[in-house]
Design brief:
alpha+beta; 26% strand
Length: 109
């Protein structure tokens, strides 16, 4: 396994260890939070919007009630629903924190 790199200067860390992508770390953390709150799991991904990070969650295709799943997460994360029509009955909730944005959406299509 390659050594873990220090983000500060790129030098090898003193102790090699497991690595994880930021997207996987965020997904795992959000999954634990949702499970503890009794929410439907969402599939999470991290996107770069021209330098502004976006964390997006959407229910899996087999989710029985996509709207209810998103509404639960929106309440937990204190997200606001977009007031404009995003098309095809898709509903999306969001919150901005500085340069960061988090969204939950009923569809990624």
């Amino acid at each position: 396994m390659p050594p873990v790199r220090s983000p500060a200067d790129g030098s090898p860390a003193t102790t090699p260890g497991p690595t994880i992508s930021i997207e996987d770390a965020l997904s795992a953390g959000l999954a634990r939070i949702g499970e503890a709150a009794g929410l439907e799991p969402l599939a999470w991904r991290a996107l770069d919007l021209g330098g502004d990070p976006l964390i997006e969650g959407a229910p899996p295709r087999d989710c029985a009630d996509r709207i209810a799943a998103c509404e639960g997460w929106a309440r937990l994360l204190q997200l606001e629903e977009y007031t404009f029509d995003v098309g095809d009955g898709v509903r999306t909730w969001f919150r901005c924190e500085g340069d960061w944005q988090i969204e939950v959406t009923t569809s990624r299509e």
